[in-house]
Amino acid sequence: MDYNFSEKVDLLIRESGKTKKSLYDFLEMTAQGFDNMMKQNSFSAIRLAKIAEFFEIQVGFFYDQPSNTYKRKSGDGGAFGEQVLDELRKVFKEELNQKNQQLLAKDRQLENKDRQLENKDKLLEGMQRTIDALVGKSSDVTADDRHDDPKIIVHPAFARKSEEEVNDYQIA
What we know:
The chain is mostly helical and 172 residues long. It has two domains: 97 residues, no CATH class; 50 residues, no CATH class. The protein is 59% helix and 0% strand. It contains six helices and no strands. Helix 1 packs across helix 3 and helix 4 runs antiparallel to helix 5. It is rod-shaped and about 95 Å long. The chain starts with a helix and ends in a 5-residue tail after the last helix.
């Protein structure tokens, strides 16, 4: 899932009336470092938590989490840090569950493909036995067995031929 954190930070700066300088000072970053982070949309979870703290919002805002309000309650002190961690845990748990579901679906697809390959291998083995029987290469199949064994598919042209007649049709 792709998140455009930069757009959300820009939106917060515009709506809050706070300056970009005050934000990068709060984050203890240089202007260049902050601009690079914004251009590359490269935010660590810790930076997002600090930005959320700066704007007094919940960190879930950055992850498109539904909420009635993202404003932090004033006077909650250390509880805000716990809120941020809880939000991050919740977001990452949901993403992990989505990824696990995707992996399970891929596992099921692989199992189906394995079964298809096994069936094709069995079909090829049967076809090879039939070809061997038709050209007389199979040591365990005689001319009389060729039309009596239900596992061996015999072309009608060879169904009533003797072994010598069938051998005349062998491919060199």
